[in-house]
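Hi C.,

You asked whether I'd gotten around to modeling the 150-residue construct. I have! Everything is below, sequence then structure, no commentary in between.
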Amino acid sequence: MRRCWLIIITNGLRVWMPPEVYLVRRLAVREARRWVEALSRRHPPEDPLTMSPLRLRHRVLLHIVEVDFAEPWRSCPLWVGVRWSERSYPRLQAELMAADADEALAWIRSRSRSPLDTGADPDCRLECFFERRKVPTYVGAHRVKPFSGF
């Protein structure tokens, strides 16, 4: 298993920017600080890796998520599966996976029975909004922008 750090920027229940993955924690922290400076009007906190989301704007949050990932992965594109509900927001669950678009779609379908909103580019973003026990829920798979050795 390999430890990785994901940077996921959300706007409400939606993933707003393509997720990024880093093999080195220091680089993930540096990039998180850069995002905070670019997207907020205030100075970044001392340590963005507090594992709690950072508020950048109204409803825009930056999440740094530590995940483990099985090697080898270099032969497949990387996707991150993300899910949460209005009740659990802003705490999200993320899963890094080496997969193609069909496997990412299967990951979403196994967690939802609702139709997908593939957005502008189904090769990079697959999303689904539905209600589970009358609670708005989001499940999405996003192609990851790999950094730091990927």
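If it helps when you're writing up: Residues 25-39 form the longest helix (15 residues).

Thanks,
B.
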